[in-house]
Design a protein that fits this description.
By secondary structure, the chain is of the alpha/beta class. The protein folds into two domains: about 180 residues, Spore Coat Polysaccharide Biosynthesis Protein SpsA, Chain A (Alpha-Beta Complex); about 90 residues, no CATH class. It has ten helices and nine strands. Helix 7 crosses helix 9 and helix 8 runs antiparallel to helix 9. The longest helix has 27 residues. The radius of gyration is 19 Å and the shape is globular. The mean pLDDT is about 90.
Length: about 290
């Protein structure tokens, strides 16, 4: 039996339909955390009641209250993880959503992979939604719904950037520091479509705001929008993204990344595009 010490952090808000499945998955794990901290982000349904029914019998489950007034949901989640992760005696820090479920050896498999590679700084499982396995475009961009951090890596990158898009920026920051990041073929089920709590306009507009605050190179943004042009509603969704990008990039002018990290990010983008072009060329040549 492995001796890894780890904590799990799960922010939740109005997850009464799904939280029971997440709790059962955690209880059935072959390796248990020293602490599972569930953070109530102002729920108005019965989520807290469901969790409290377990807390009284399971000492390693703890409930906390989020007191932050940060408006952005992404920034709020990153803030919660940062605030409740100051434990220097753990090997791994795990952030999981309150609407996921997974097999009993999920964490055991993740930790085995990380134990066998001490430079593997951030891992996530592979998402299944509506019985369909997600095929990530880039295998080194880990999924925010299940994030497992080597705690040394988490400290090395200074925790999570408290902004929308924190779950992309952490990968870039870790890679910049020499860590590896990876989506592993270890599956978890996401019971709720990501971003469903946002209206479609707000979802795409906020994405544009985030892309402009990195900022993404404009050519890369255009290519990304072309690739996703049929996302609902077709064409209009990507026009909203571009509008948010322009407003963020040229009006707000807020850069999330340092110049050196931004240069590294641009280099990674070029490498990925070249890699994709080579793959397409290879396929078309055969």
């Amino acid at each position: 039996m492995m001796n890894n010490k780890f904590i799990v952090i799960t922010p939740f808000k109005n997850e009464e339909k799904y939280i029971e499945a997440t709790i059962q998955s955690m209880l059935n794990q072959s390796v248990k955390p020293i602490s599972w901290i569930l953070i109530d982000d102002s729920s108005t349904d019965t989520s807290l009641d469901i969790i409290n029914s377990y807390v009284k019998n399971i000492p390693w489950i703890k409930v906390e209250k989020n007191d932050s007034s940060i408006e952005s949901k992404g920034a709020r989640i990153a803030n919660m993880v940062n605030n409740f992760s100051s434990n220097t005696k753990i090997d791994y820090l795990c952030k999981i959503d309150a609407d996921v479920s997974f097999e009993e050896n999920f964490f055991e498999k993740i930790f085995n992979a990380m134990d066998n590679n001490d430079r593997l700084g951030i891992c996530s499982g592979t998402l299944i939604y509506d019985n369909k396995i997600e095929r990530p475009i880039f295998s080194d961009l880990t999924r925010g719904a299940t994030k497992i951090y080597n705690y040394n890596c988490f400290k090395d990158i200074g925790g999570l950037l408290e902004s929308r898009g924190w779950d992309t920026i952490d990968n870039v920051s870790a890679q910049y520091k020499g860590w590896e990041t990876r989506v592993l073929p270890i599956y978890f089920e996401h019971h709720k479509l990501e971003g469903i709590s946002y209206r479609w306009y707000n979802r795409y507009y906020e994405s544009g705001i985030y892309f402009g605050s990195i900022p993404y190179p404009f050519y890369y943004l255009v290519l990304r929008c072309i690739y996703r042009i049929f996302n609902h509603p077709p064409l209009i969704s990507q026009i909203v993204v571009i509008y948010g990008f322009i407003y963020s990039r040229f009006i707000l002018k807020k850069n999330l990344l340092s110049p050196s990290l931004q240069a590294f990010f641009y280099q990674r983008i070029r490498e990925r595009l070249i890699g994709k072009i080579k793959n397409v060329w290879h396929i078309s040549s055969n």
